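Support reply, case 0932

Customer input (verbatim):
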Amino acid sequence: MSSFSTLNTALSGLQAHKRVIDVIGHNISNVNTEGYSRRQVLLEPATGMKIASRFDTDFSWNNLGVNIAGVNRIRDQFLDVKARASLANSASAARLDSVLGGVEGTFPEPSDTAIAGQLSAFWNAFSDAANQPGSIPQRAAVLAQASNLAASLNQAAGSLQTQHTDLSSQLTMAVDQVNTLAQQVADLNVQIRAASVAGMDTGDLADERDRLVDQLTSLTGAEVRPIEYNQVNVMLGGSSLVSGGRISPLKVTTLGAFPAPLDQLQVQQTQLQWADDSYPVAGFGGDIGGLVQGLNDVIPRYMHDLDTVAQTLVTTVNTIHNNGQGQDALNDVNLDFFDPAGVTAATIKLSSDVDGQPSRIALGAVGGGALDGSIGHQMGAAGGLANSPDAIHRAMIGRLGVEAQAATTRASTQAKFAVEAENQRTSVSGVNLDEEMTNLVMSQRAYESAARLLSAVDEMLDTLINRTAV
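Our regenerated output:
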C-alpha cells in the first residue's frame, strides 16, 4: 500500500462527511419550510477490487476510502397516496358541509320570522278574521300576513339562487386554478427531467412539484403516478391532466335544464369537461367535486322543495278561496287569493283580486251572508292537513337538518383523517431537529477522525522523507 494513497483515503473521508454536514445544514435550515422533504447522503465504501479478466482479481490499495452514492430525498410513496386521498376527501366533505350550511342559513328554523312561523301566522290570521267577518282591520291583517309570507318565500328563493350563482363562480375560479397548477407541474416535470439526465440533484424541484400536486389533489381528487426521470403524471378518472410536460386543461360547461321534476327551475346543469374535446371529466372529487354536487344536486333539490311549498300554498288557498265570497255578494265571488301565475317561491304574490282590497277576501260561503266565516275557518284549518304547505315545509326542514348534520360530522371526521395522514407523512419526510443534531455530531466526529488520519499520514511522510538516512 502506497503511503501517498492513504492521503487519498483520508481525503475521501473529509469530502464525504463535509457533504453530509452540508446536507444536514440544509435540512436544519428548512425545518419550517412547507413541503420540504429531508435529505440523506448515502455513503458506500470505495472498492479496491479490479476485475481485469475472469480469472484475474487483483486488489488495488489505491482505491480505498468512501464514495458518495447519492443524496436521497426521503419520501414514502404509500403515505403520499394516503395523505393525498385524505386531503381530497376532506376538501370535498368540507365544501359540501359549507353548501348545506348556506342552505340551512336560508331557513333559520325554528323562528317566529321564518317560513314555518309565517305560515302559522297566516292561517291564524284567517281564523281571527273568520271570527269577525265584518271587521276590515282583521281582513287587512290577513293581507299583511299573506304579504309577509310571500316575501319570505321570495327571499328564500332569492337566497338559494344567489348561492347557486356564487358556487358557479367559485367553480370557474377553481377550474382556472387547476389549469394553472397543472401547467406549473408540467413545467417542473420538464426541469426535473433535464436535471435528472444531467445527473443533478432534483430534490428541491421535486418538493415544489409535490406541493403543487397536493393542491391539485385537494381541488380535484386526482391520482399521481410516477414515471421515468423522476417525473409524475396526474390522472383524473384514468385520463391525464398532466402527462410529463404536457397538460389537458379543464373547462366548465352549462348543459341546460335539469331533467324532470327539476326542469322548471331557473338554474341549469353544470358539467366539468376536457377543454380539448368537450368530453365529460370522470372520477374527480376534492373541492371541485363538492362544488359540482352543490350546483347539480343540493341547491336545485331544495329550490324544488321550496317551490313545492309555494305551489301547494297557492293551490290550497286559491281552491278554498274560490268557493267563498267577500262582502259584496255579487262581485266578490270566484276570486283568487294568490296570483295563479306565481306558483314558485320566487314568483308567489297576492292576486290583484284582493291585493289592497281586504273587503274582497272570501271569508264566508257563497250565499252565507255578511257574517258567515265558514270559509275563513276552513282556511285556518288548512295548515293542519296532511298534505298542507306546512307539512311539506316541515318535511323539507327535517331532511335538511339530518343532511346538514351528517355533512358536518363527515367533514369533521375527514379533517381528522387528513391531519393524521399528513402527520404520518411528515414523520417520515419532515425534519426532526433532534435526529439531525445527532447525525451532525456523528458526521463531525467522522470528519475529525479523517482529518486526524490525514495529519498522521502527513507526520509519517515527514519522518520518512526528511529523517530517513540522516
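We compared this against your earlier run and they match. Two observations from our side: The mean pLDDT is 90. The longest strand covers residues 66-73. Please reopen the case if you see a mismatch on your end.
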